[in-house]
Amino acid sequence: MxxxxxxxxxxxxxxxxxxxxxxxxxVVVRAERHPTDAARGPAAVxxxxxxxxxxxxxxxxxxxxxxxxxxxxVPGVVDEARGVAVWSANVGFRDVPVRDLAVxxxxxxxxxxxxxxxxxxxxxxxGAGRGSGHVLFVAIGTGIASAxxxxxxxxxxxxxxxxxxxxxxxxxxxxxxxxxxxGCLEAIASAAAIGRRYAELAGxxxxxxxxxxxxxxxxxxxxxxxxxxxxxxxxxxxxxxxxGQALFDVATIVLGGGLAQAGDGLLTPLRAxxxxxxxxxxxxxxxxxxxxxxxGCLGAALLALxxxxxxxxxxxR
Length: 317
Ligand SMILES: [Zn+2]
Description:
single chain; binds zinc ion; globular; 5-stranded mixed sheet; about 25% strand; alpha/beta; Nucleotidyltransferase, domain 5
């Protein structure tokens, strides 16, 4: 049987939107990127989301394909059941009924998801967590967030805010977090925090902004200050992930986001630090994400397929 069904998927970030037309087996048949240009305000961003989604659906039809659903991933707090983007710092959403707006515009079933949760969904079903029933996906970038995926479904939480592992307290007297509290994991081990900490210790005479990736590189070449900052981050991450493992007992922890690009420079010391913290817990496989920055878009596609009951092909292909 030939299958001409496709879904339209959008992953809306603070700076750009990754968009695709995706087959039920997870294969991308068309990919586009568009600027979010969030400074225009949330109404204009939603207008662009709807224009891009409609454009992709039209292009799919022109290619002889049949769009059957739309999946849209956004950052912040997302009420997936109601399809509402509740709050987002970097896109400016406040209670935007994205799903209903998309249904009205495109006439297709639409699912709205959270960017990290759908990224975790994609890594668990199509990427580095494939074959593991229980996966914790942890995205480490400007902030730190996670998705707990069990048998291909990501837990959303009662208020759409599950997975905020970045706000687990790991250092009671640590630096102030963006959330207002002191010592959150994110305030110590996010890429942004690592860069800040290095600059703080290097002092005002040092060369300006150093990224977390550069700290990782310098640590690998034996620079003592970078080594210290990197190890502080590794220890904080190990504390946070050990808490995650105590809660969820997953088979695999998949690390994504910019920091995961440090590869073995991150994974090797983090595995050792995790092992030290495991008492009766079973040690999870700790691996780097496999789908790169396409995970969110693929996850949005999976959410759309789930919404119309088309599933179980990805695992079989
Ligand atoms: Zn916090």
